[in-house]
Each structure stands twice: as structure tokens, then as C-alpha cells.
Amino acid sequence: MNDTLKHRGMRNKLADTLIEKGISDTKVLDAIRSVPRHLFMDSSFEGHAYQDKAFPIAANQTISQPYTVAFQSELLEVKPNHKVLEIGTGSGYQTAILLKLKTKVFTIERQLELFKKTNIFFKKMGYRPKKFIFGDGYKGWPEEAPFDRIIVTAGAPEVPKALLSQLKVGGRLVIPVGEEDQIMTLYVRKSEKQFEKKKWVFFGSFHYLRTKTKALKLSRIEILFDTIQIPFVVAIFDRFPLSYNFLPLAKAMFNFAKPWSFKKRFKGIMVLPEVLTSFSSFLSSCLFNKSFRSALGLWL
Questions:
Q1: Are 65 and 53 in contact (CB under 8 A)?
Q2: Which residue has the higher pLDDT, 283 or 91?
Q3: Same domain, 257 and 164
Q4: Does residue 227 sit within a domain?
Q5: Is the same domain home to 138 and 229?
Q6: Roughly what angle, to the nearest 10 degrees, separates helices 66-76 and 93-100?
Q7: Do residue 198 and residue 81 come from a single domain?
Q8: Annotated catalytic residue 291
Q9: How large is the average pLDDT for residues 162-191?
Q10: Does residue 264 share a domain with residue 185?
Q11: Whole-angstrom Cα distance, residue 208 to residue 79?
Q12: Is residue 21 part of a domain?
């Protein structure tokens, strides 16, 4: 496969889609526009390569959704010559994005079939990570530590302690955490023993900041609210950009429901106007949107 003007146009359109979904780092967007994603995939997927979707690759793995790649790259906040450890090389697409950002990439792949295939591809395409090895990424790379940044491309049930120990003070680690419902998590090392943790919960292709403290204890209801997947919400976010308006409604509903789990009913009643106002705003924006009315058969 070649990289044509048509492919470049499709990459520009993909970057525009990512901007609509909240990606704002211009360097990350430029990297998305530069790296030919279709070359990292089987030729049968060439026509779909610039959709914002994950696709299967070798060893029953997938090439990550472009939004996920861009979002993780943005959270890393890399600078030129940063030493970056990547856990899960996969197809090499995320590696290529990091290289476009002028970082020194140390990358580990645990699937032997993928390691061999991607290693050949890197040499053919001229992508030169600092080092590329086959092994268990959850053990990190002690011989090369410490790292300015660490990125884990596949979900883990918990954050490997080995990776936290190999992060520089001031460094950032980005990892999706969870077995089924995964939450994108950022660790920032503040000192030798202190880490700041932030979590992002995803609704469809969108996200909002969930927490910002390492010591915060979540109630059972809060956890359920964070991880539940509502098909209607996911569908509406993927179909209509106006559904950004759902975020304040969702937040208001959460603030209303949370106190009830702690039997603080008065606080719940106090935020009820916020719920009603947010719902009214969301409903109005929907009804004034032609495509939304058309989809529901509401010719108003």
C-alpha cells in the first residue's frame, strides 16, 4: 500500500473529528495527520483505516481507536527527547505517534507473533524506537529506568507497582485500569513516595474528569455510576455532537444521587434545581437540532 493524497485528506478529516471530541494538543493532532495509519493494518481494512475505531491485527489484538491514541498521548504531555516507556507495542501505531513527537521510545511487546511482525515493519518503514524488545511489559524495563513518561496501551486490572517505581519524579504514567469497564488513569509522581492520581470516565467517545486525589474513597453507588454503560447514552454521543450538553446533566444527576447514598437528603434536594435546569437545556438543544428531530420522527 502507498500513502496517497487521498489518505492524507482522510487523516486531516480524522484530526478534525478528534478536535470535535475534545483533543486540543496541536502537536498530537499534527502527528495524527502525519502517520499513515492504514499502513499499520491489514490491506483489507484500508478503506476504513481513518474511521475513529479499533480494528483487529495479528495475535488476536487490535490497533487502538485513534481517539484513544490521541487522548493518551495528550495526557502524557511529552516534550522532545523525553524518555518514554511504552508497554504494548502492538501494531506500532502509538509508537510512531510518539516518535513524531520527537521522544526517545523504549517499547515492549509480549506477543511474539506481533513482536516479529512489527519489528520487520519498523525497519521497512524507517521507524526507529530507541529500543524494542519482546517481554513482559508489566515488569517494566529496570535496566533503562527511570523514565520521563510511561504509557500502557492495553488495560490492566491494576497499576503494576514496577512501572510506578520506574517513573521519574515529575513523570507521568497513563494506563487504562479495569478488567471489563476500564477507566483511563493518570499518575503523576510528585516525590519518591507520593503520586497524584486522576481518572477519566468515558461515555461513548467522550470523557469527563472523574477524580483528582489519590486518597479519595468511592462509595459503591459512585463506582456503579462511573462504570455503567448505557446504550442510549453511548449511541447519542456517537451520533450527535450536541450531546456534549448531556455532560452537565449527567454531572447534575450524579450530584443529586450521591448524597442519597449517604442519607444526606437535604443536600440532594438542594441540587435538584441544577438537575432540572440541565435537563431543560439538554432537551431544548435536542429539539432544536434538525438531525435529532429527524431521527426521532419529530417534525417540529
A1: yes
A2: 91
A3: no
A4: yes
A5: no
A6: 40
A7: yes
A8: no
A9: 93
A10: no
A11: 25
A12: no
User: Among 216, 250, 269, which residue terminates a domain?
Assistant: 216
Among the options 24, 64, 165, 205, which is catalytic? Answer: 64
Identify the residue whose cell numbers are 524506537.
Answer: 129
Q: What is the pLDDT of residues 78-94, one digit of tens each?
A: 999 999 999 999 999 99
* 97 and 197 fall within a common domain: yes
Domain that holds residue 188: 65-216
DSSP string of the chain? ----HHHHHHHHHHHHHHHHTT---HHHHHHHHHS-GGGGS-GGGGGGTTSSS-EE-GGG-EEPPHHHHHHHHHHHT--TT-EEEEE--TTSHHHHHHHHTT-EEEEEE--HHHHHHHHHHHHHHT---SEEEES-GGG--TTT--EEEEEE-S-BSS--HHHHHTEEEEEEEEEEE-SSS-EEEEEEE-SSS-EEEEEEEEETTEEEEEE--SSPPPPHHHHHHHH---HHHHHHHHH-GGGGGHHHHHHHHHHHHHHHHTT-HHHHHHTHHHHHHHHHHHHHHHHT-HHHHHHHT---
**Could you say which of 166, 200, 216 is where a domain stops?**
216
Domain-located, residue 26: no
